[in-house]
């Protein structure tokens, strides 16, 4: 009677492997070694005349934090299905049982290896399954030949030592999955925060509000747009305009729309520095319209003007996540952004040139893909 290479099966449906019912009738890799009573099938499985070990791999989502980076990836739990595994009662010895354990170890090693390769090569796990199954079958044939179908105890022990070393080297580590990958040169950023704007003007005072921004980034260059809205400013001197007037003491609503260009000069460890220049429009609203304009639109008018200036983005990295659960390999960095900005605006209606110091403090999110090195 000859020992027939074991067969393996894999499932790609995601389930919760922490469910207690999942372990019923199964032996999970790493919990213990195989025993004779793990071969519970009452008759030969799939026509096998000597033995058959049924293997199963199931995926699960996993998170791990290493060096301050949170990795999200798919790990795989491997099992022997006891009721589908069979061994000829007349062909049992300790060497053959260890041979079965070696083949279980081989399966685990190849699964781990494929997980890493699927991330690095940006392909799905199931796309590589056929290649892994072929490698598994070929290695089983080699092991059977070297061990005389598991009867050569010395050869079985040698293979066990070899596989133990391979499994140690192939221990799933998300840092190995991203080794050789580099951030995309193109990425997107978005930020929101609180804003303070202090103009040096005889007409209106400081205001406080919120700031929203987004940018397209290529290498070190940033192209972005900011929208600011601020409140709690009071008019300090009467302003007369074509459609209305603002009296001293009136509350103002201020705002700005600014496009900007920045260039990153420092990005190391947890800090990034990006000076930028911006152009756009700034405005403030308040007061009352003249009677002839109220019938058309009973809203406050705008005192607006062209604005330009320069500033600095100071980003402090709070959280870094790399998601390897799909072939897209998305990385996200969440940063505390402090953005001081000096602006000069030429308002109409006699207000004239107004310099201002502005500062926004908020959260910035940077999203990009991980690619193989060119």
Question: Could you describe the 3D structure shown?
Answer:
The model is unreliable at 1-22 (pLDDT under 50). The two termini are 54 Å apart. The longest helix is centred in the first third of the chain and has 27 residues, at 94-120. The protein has helices at residues 94-120, 129-147, 153-169, 174-178, 291-294; strands at residues 26-28, 51-52, 55-66, 69-81, 86-87, 181-183, 186-199, 207-218, 221-234, 239-240, 244-246, 251-263, 266-268, 271-286, 288-289, 301-323, 330-347, 352-372. β16 (301-323) and β17 form a beta hairpin. α1 (94-120) packs parallel to α3. It is rod-shaped and about 105 Å long. The protein has 374 residues and is an alpha+beta fold. The chain contains five helices and 18 strands. The strands form three sheets. An eight-stranded antiparallel beta barrel has the order 7-8-9-12-14-16-17-18.
Helix content class:
10-25%
How many DSSP-defined strands? Answer: 18
Global morphology: rod-shaped
Give the termini separation.
Answer: 54 Å
Q: Would you kindly provide a brief summary of this structure?
A:
By secondary structure, the protein is α+β, with helices and mostly antiparallel strands. The chain is built from 5 helices and 18 strands. The strands form 3 sheets. The protein has an 8-stranded antiparallel barrel. Strands 10-11-15 form a 3-stranded antiparallel sheet. The protein has a two-stranded antiparallel sheet with strand order 2-5.
List the topology elements:
Blueprint: E1 26-28, E2 51-52, E3 55-66, E4 69-81, E5 86-87, H1 94-120, H2 129-147, H3 153-169, H4 174-178, E6 181-183, E7 186-199, E8 207-218, E9 221-234, E10 239-240, E11 244-246, E12 251-263, E13 266-268, E14 271-286, E15 288-289, H5 291-294, E16 301-323, E17 330-347, E18 352-372
Parallel strand pairs: 4-16
Antiparallel strand pairs: 1-4, 2-5, 3-4, 6-18, 7-8, 7-18, 8-9, 9-12, 10-11, 11-15, 12-14, 13-14, 14-16, 16-17, 17-18
Helix pairs in contact: 1-2, 1-3
């Amino acid at each position: 009677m000859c020992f027939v290479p074991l067969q393996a099966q894999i499932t790609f449906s995601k389930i919760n492997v922490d469910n207690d019912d999942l372990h019923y009738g199964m032996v999970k890799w790493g919990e213990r070694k195989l025993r004779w009573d793990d071969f519970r099938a009452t008759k030969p499985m799939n026509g096998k005349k000597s033995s058959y070990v049924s293997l199963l791999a199931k995926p699960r989502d996993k998170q791990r934090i290493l060096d301050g980076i949170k990795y999200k990836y798919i790990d795989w739990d491997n099992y022997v299905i006891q009721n589908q595994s069979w061994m000829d009662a007349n062909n049992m010895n300790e060497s053959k049982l260890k041979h079965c354990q070696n083949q279980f170890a081989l399966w685990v090693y190849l699964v781990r290896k494929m997980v890493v390769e699927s991330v690095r090569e940006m392909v799905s796990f199931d796309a590589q399954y056929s290649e892994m199954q072929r490698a598994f079958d070929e290695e089983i044939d080699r092991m059977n030949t070297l061990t005389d179908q598991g009867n050569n105890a010395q050869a079985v022990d040698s293979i066990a030592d070899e596989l133990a070393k391979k499994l140690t080297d192939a221990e799933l580590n998300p840092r190995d999955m991203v080794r050789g990958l580099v951030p995309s040169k193109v990425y997107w950023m978005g930020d929101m925060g609180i804003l303070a704007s202090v103009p040096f003007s005889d007409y209106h005072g400081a205001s406080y509000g919120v700031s929203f921004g987004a940018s397209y980034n290529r290498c070190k260059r940033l192209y972005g747009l900011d929208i600011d809205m601020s409140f709690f400013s009071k008019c300090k001197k009467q302003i007369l305009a074509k459609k209305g007037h603002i009296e001293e003491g009136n509350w103002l609503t201020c705002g700005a729309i600014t496009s900007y260009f920045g260039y990153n000069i420092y990005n190391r460890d947890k800090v990034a520095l990006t000076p930028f220049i911006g152009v756009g429009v700034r405005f403030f609203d308040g007061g009352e319209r003249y009677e002839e304009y109220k019938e058309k639109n009973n809203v406050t008018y705008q005192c607006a003007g062209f604005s330009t200036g320069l500033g600095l983005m100071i980003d402090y990295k709070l959280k870094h996540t790399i998601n390897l659960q799909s072939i897209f390999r998305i990385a996200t960095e969440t940063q505390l952004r402090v953005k001081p900005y000096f602006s000069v605006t030429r308002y109409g209606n006699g207000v004239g040139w107004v310099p201002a110091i502005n500062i926004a403090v908020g959260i910035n999110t940077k999203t990009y893909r991980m690619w193989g090195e060119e």
